[in-house]
Amino acid sequence: MCLAIPGKVAEIQDNEGVRTGRVLFGGIARQACLDFVPEVRVGDYVMVHVGFAISVVDKEQAESTYALLESMGVLGEELGLGTEGTKSS
Amino acid sequence: MKYLDEYRDAKIARGLAAEIRRRSTRPWVLMEICGGQTHTLMRYGIDELLGNSVELVHGPGCPVCVTPLEMIDRANALARRPEVTLVSYGDMLRVPGSETDLFHIKAEGGDVRIVYSPTDAVELARKAPERQVVFFAVGFETTAPAHAMAVLQAERLGLTNFSLLVSHVLVPPAIRMLLQSPRNRVQGFIAPGHVCTVVGVGDYEELCREFHVPIVVGGFEPVDLLDAIRMLVCQLEEGRAEVENSYARSVQYAGNRAAQDAVERVFEVTDRKWRGLGEIGASGLRLKAKYAAFDAERLFGLAGVRAEEPSECISAEVLLGHRKPTDCPAFGTRCTPERPLGAPMVSTEGACAAYHQYRRHLVTL
Asked: What is this model's ipTM?
């Protein structure tokens, strides 16, 4: 449950006072709150947990973690793409 | 993708395992405290790779598993109320309460929704002002900032139909309880990487000093975990007890200050019951009095819902590292992931469920 997924910040918007990013996880785009990483810029990689970026990581390390999670088959679950009764992370 | 090869390279994993076996002069007992790490260790057979050089025991690091039975019953009671939309992470739907689970209540017509983020629940409340939207806020320190932010958003939006059923627990008090047990066998800890990403490593330094026990912050990939185990074995063999960080790509010493600030604004430390372990002092979070209007337990008068756990379950012994899941007479028979008797069989991150999934009861280790 405490897994976090690395993704690339493609766009940053102000969403009614909340700094929100469009974050790319491979081919999947998700909105994530960027309030906890005020230093983040477009193009940076962040670790995202339940829709919130909790740290900024470097690109190569992010890509490696992402590919590993994908190979473990847990990426869809972490991004909330599962159906009813999605198993744990 | 240079690093990809490094993280997945079996040669690197085998090299690290060989070094651990070479350095280790006795079977050190090490514990990881994160269910995600437990899952990785089992999935990749890291315990088998290390042979007798270390014994890996699995701590109470799955928030789904340690959520007490009566809190599940409270969520179930809420989900049955006609005016309530009960919102949760998918993990919680199959967790059995005393009588049933949220999945069955949903099948019977209860308004139960699964979301990816607590902000989705705030959005649900905004779009359906006639509904009482309750978010089941379960988790460790990693998840608490997101739940705090949901409350702050709801406050800013002036919502009066959004609340949290809070069941938040903190990792260090559970480690302290474990180390204080006269039967403790654990000699070194892999600290949870994403919990530390949020809170930093200060609390772990305190534990390290107090109990003279080595602690290494670990990541979630097989090579990360092997590296953390290697660092722990080196410390133990050299008689050192320090906090080291093997997951520096995400964890900074002080953690994430902005996330900590959100938690401090909304939550305060309280005693919490852990499924399998009982009550641990100052081991959880509750909403501050200022945010009482967002407290589902208060709004719906749920304090009276109480439940006792099945007595046959040895989960406390498993969660404290005293016994292995396969030592339990009910394991795989009267207790399975479909019909769990206790905490560690509840979610796939739990130690018993991980052993069951990877069929450790069918092989000789």
From this structure: 0.91
